[in-house]
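Hey all, quick one. A colleague (J.T.) asked me to put the magnesium ion job into the tracker so the inputs and the structure tokens live in one place instead of scattered across chat threads. No bug as far as I know, just bookkeeping. Sequence used:
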Amino acid sequence: MHQDCERILYTEEQLKARIEEIAIALNEDYRDKRPLVVGILKGSIIFYSDLIRKLTMPVELDFMAISSYGASTESTGQILIKKDLTADIKGKDVIIVEDIVDSGNTLYMLRSHLSTRGANDIKIVALLNKPSRRKVDLEPDYKCFDIEDEFVVGYGMDYAERYRNLPYIGILKRSVYEK
Ligand code: IMP
Ligand code: MG
């Protein structure tokens, strides 16, 4: 384990097993569809690549990079799109793949933004969910795990752009970000 981690929260094996369960649900729910699977950069990349390889329906892939603009909790809040989708989403069944839903602000705004672009349906798949931190009415439609209010890294997730390549999810030592 990395020395900056307090403990491992989910091992590679636990993640693999849970992702297979999520994929089974998606394969059933999207059996006759052809969804556009949108990965939110950069945190979702490892989860995204593991998940899509377990999907059996035809999928289209795309990516966005976004950040929330200020701390607005209103539906009028704005997101800053740093990298946009490459194709039109009108009429598409969109599956957003995100690393972690915290306050929910970012996805709340992204979801309403994408619906104004004419998506037929938008669902959210999250690797992790921190329900105790939620500030807006947003729940992931599919999620691997609910976690406590702790700062996690690895498996795509960072602290100051570090630790994304750890193959497991670890709880970051407080001393790393409180010094
Ligand atoms: P939200 O808009 O507050 O839901 O922000 C969610 C985003 O915050 C995630 O996509 C992550 O980039 C980041 N984030 C929240 N909690 C953590 C964490 O524990 N570790 C790493 N990134 C986190
Ligand atoms: Mg993120």
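Adding what we noticed when we looked at it: Residues 71-75 have pLDDT under 50 and may be disordered. The chain has four helices and nine strands.
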